[in-house]
TrEMBL record:
Residues 1-29 are annotated as: Disordered. Keywords: Coiled coil, Membrane, Transmembrane, Transmembrane helix. This is Uncharacterized protein. Residues 16-29 have a biased composition (Polar residues). It comes from Nannochloropsis gaditana.
Length: 172
């Protein structure tokens, strides 16, 4: 142990001296230096611990940020894939519906054409029938009626037989 040169007080370990026996202002420069060295060592230790903690926290934060970014990127990719699949499904469905509508339109056009053809054929048939009837009416009221009727009877006989009305005419 070290005693003060005046013989009063003792220096304690760690650089602090007790002034209980010597009173204030009685320490020497060496003791004061030890006090400041200890103080700065303590501050250095605190700063070192704080710096190390900051490095650890920064590293942890960087790791956490990278984890969150990778998780967000994976989620974005998953959502984009899901959206692309949904878009493809809707486009396929729309394309199918469009193709079906085109087929229905083509069928409707074919049906209209068939009906139009049928109507045209019917018109042609009835026009021919009207013309034939007009000719028969015209011949019935002209002098050419008899030869026309005779020609019809000959035509029927050549085809194989006579009808009941022709037999009556032959009898007359």
């Amino acid at each position: 142990m070290y005693t003060h040169p005046t013989g009063k007080g003792r220096v304690l370990r760690g650089g602090f001296s007790s002034t209980a026996h010597t009173g204030p202002g009685t320490s020497n420069g060496e003791e004061l230096g030890k006090k400041w060295a200890t103080f700065f060592q303590g501050i250095g230790a605190v700063v070192g611990v704080a710096g190390a903690t900051a490095v650890v926290v920064r590293t942890f934060d960087q790791t956490e940020i990278k984890y969150i970014e990778s998780k967000a990127a994976a989620e974005i990719a998953r959502v984009e894939d899901k959206a692309a699949a949904e878009i493809a499904r809707v486009e396929d469905k729309a394309a199918t519906e469009i193709a079906q509508a085109k087929a229905e339109i083509a069928q409707a056009k074919a049906d209209v054409a068939r009906v139009e053809d049928k109507r045209t054929m019917s018109e042609m048939f009835w026009k021919a029938e009207v013309e034939r009837f007009k000719r028969e009416v015209q011949l019935a009221f002209t002098q050419d009626y008899e030869p026309y009727q005779a020609a019809l009877v000959d035509k029927r006989k050549k085809r194989g037989g006579t009808s009941g009305s022709e037999e009556k005419e032959e009898e007359n």
